[in-house]
Amino acid sequence: MTTVSTEQEQALAGAQGDGSAVQPCAVIVVIDPGHGDRLEAGNPIDPGAVSGKVYEKDIALDVSNKLKPKLEAKTDCIQAVYLTRDGDISEVRKRLAWRVAIAKEKKANIFISLHLDASDNASAKGQSVLYHPNSANSKSLAVAVSARANVVKPRSSGGPKPRDNLYVIKMAHFGPDTKAAVLVELGFISNESDRNACLTQADAIAQEIADGIADFILANKAIFSGAGSTPQNVPLPRPRPTDRDLPQNVPIPRPRPANL
């Protein structure tokens, strides 16, 4: 008969020696640098918001390129990181849908889209993180990312905001693997302070976002734990028989008398 040690039983039950839950997670993240694609033949590449010769698409890509290795370094919780684009997309693609299609292809657990705000009011400033109101996980991710924002502080009008009209954060567009999706407005390209921060402190901004994502994952391990987390090469204990499993109406043998 195969015996199972206490440690093996605890591993199979998802517990450590002290009884605390073990929730392995190997999260896949897809980063989406906003804009930078071509929506119609003959049209120029979509620059996003513009301030002089500064384009939203370029800042979003720069921060994304810096964010990717910072997330990859978090090997305690992140398995792989992908970008939806690593430069301008010259061929025509269906607006927004191709970005989500990449997330589905990569089986992304987290999708994060990077953008910049713009306003006619040059004093408007601050970072904001948007999530779909129907996704509690996305709200939690938005709160975690926003809590780390310091280079460009969150907008004074409040923290993360629900938005129900943004394609890339509507969970119904993603596959079952995706547990959270947010859109980060890194700051206002129309505000000199925000714009300069995004241009000169992109590395620090990327680190803040990476830390916020890791905070969210480590605080919510259970939602990323799949069937593949069962330890390998561990013998499975047989279930103990219940009363229903025992034969009914069978006389119990009397013990033999001992030799006197």
From TrEMBL:
Gene3D superfamilies: Zn-dependent exopeptidases. Residues 100-214 form the MurNAc-LAA domain. PANTHER family: N-ACETYLMURAMOYL-L-ALANINE AMIDASE, N-ACETYLMURAMOYL-L-ALANINE AMIDASE AMIC. The lineage of its organism: Bacteria, Pseudomonadati, Myxococcota, Polyangia, Polyangiales. InterPro entries: MurNAc-LAA_cat, N-acetylmuramoyl_amidase_3. Keywords: Hydrolase. GO terms for biological process: peptidoglycan catabolic process. The keyword Acetylation does not apply. Coiled coil: none annotated. Residues 228-260 are annotated as: Disordered. It comes from Polyangium spumosum. Residues 250-260 have a biased composition (Pro residues). One of its GO terms (molecular function) is N-acetylmuramoyl-L-alanine amidase activity. The keyword Ribonucleoprotein does not apply. This is N-acetylmuramoyl-L-alanine amidase. It catalyses: Hydrolyzes the link between N-acetylmuramoyl residues and L-amino acid residues in certain cell-wall glycopeptides. GO terms for cellular component: outer membrane-bounded periplasmic space.
